[in-house]
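User: I would dearly like some help making sense of a protein record. This is the protein in question:
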Amino acid sequence: MAQGFQTDPGVAGVWDWPVVAASLSLVAGAIFLSRWLGLGVERSLIWASLRAAVQLLAVGALLAFILRSTLPDLWAWAWVAVMIGVASFVMVRRMPSAPGVWVPATTAVGLSTGAGLAVVFGFGAIPYDPISVVVFAGITIGNAMPHGVLAAKQVIAQARDRPGTIEALLAMGFDRGGIVRFLAPESARMALIPQIERTKVVGLIALPGAMTGLLLAGVDPVDAVVVQLLVMYLVLGAAAITVIVMVLAVTRSTITSRLQVADWVRPGG
């Protein structure tokens, strides 16, 4: 696999703008049905489609710039740093109830990304090049971010549902570590269930994206499977690391330094 993949040269000519336009027919059908049935989701469908096109075209332009640049490695790692920053910003915005999560969010995303890239390139699973750095970092960050948000929301929901229980535990002599051990396990399990279930059924219900793309590009099926396994394990590990960091950080924030329930945990806090 380190020697690179051989693709079918005839495949490149298949993809063209008319094909992309034709693929929008399904979206157009969904918009028509939404309008006809009064579901009210047509604006969201149109906005999502336009936004995806703009963002992907911008990504394509940036990747072309990196390939032509005299400092491709520098630009690639700068792009990774920007992605980590944006992901952390989005995570913080989506869980305003929990204060002081900027550092844990950045740490969670950065740690999972760094660990994933170290495994991929450190063991020579994929040949190192700037584009591969951006691609695998994007895969890691894109999957780590929603799991981090879900983990934090699970802790917030648990803490706000049981402030009396937490106070009772504190009265019994529990410290922050004890509260973490009380709240963290269930929150971590609930946050990881979606990714664990996807990993369990990969290849049984649907062929995942990376493998499908490689097969369509003419890559040998065995090589495509190996790359997909690499991606799935990378995603699962990144999700788990992010969930653990976020659960620990947010759970600790439910208790103040004076071993009292934080104000944000209480109703209306």
